[in-house]
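Subject: sequence -> structure tokens, single chain

Hey, anyone have a minute? Need the predicted structure for the following. Not urgent.
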Amino acid sequence: MPLHWKLVIDCTDPHRQAAFWGAALDYTVEDHSTLITRLLGAGAITSEDLTELDGRPAWRTLAAVRHPEDPYDPASDTGLGRRVLFQAVPETRRGKNRLHLDVHPGPGERAATVTRLGALGATALRDVKEPGGEWTVMQDPEGNEFCVH
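Reply:
Had a minute. Here:
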């Protein structure tokens, strides 16, 4: 039986990363405020675990985005399919990514996508042309590299 998985990305600001990647991929930024309110009421968590985002409680150290067409748990707004979770860690990124995302906007759309992602906070690093294809290497707002094909 195949395993269910999600991609977890270490970062310093999970909510900024979720906002960027949600917009970049056209994914839904998860809203865990209903779950958080329920857990607060039960005494299972404290305000120290939380921050405020757009007037709602949110996890201090976690944020996530999910594919808008995939199933999710309506009680927690947690995605049950394609999902990226951002978790705060104390250290910053060092060195080259060992894992990165490739985004594929479609034929003839790379330049427009690079421009759109730049407006969202990404930085274009270089264009690559190899026998296997062409792409643009970019960095997200925290410096994590990804490629636009």
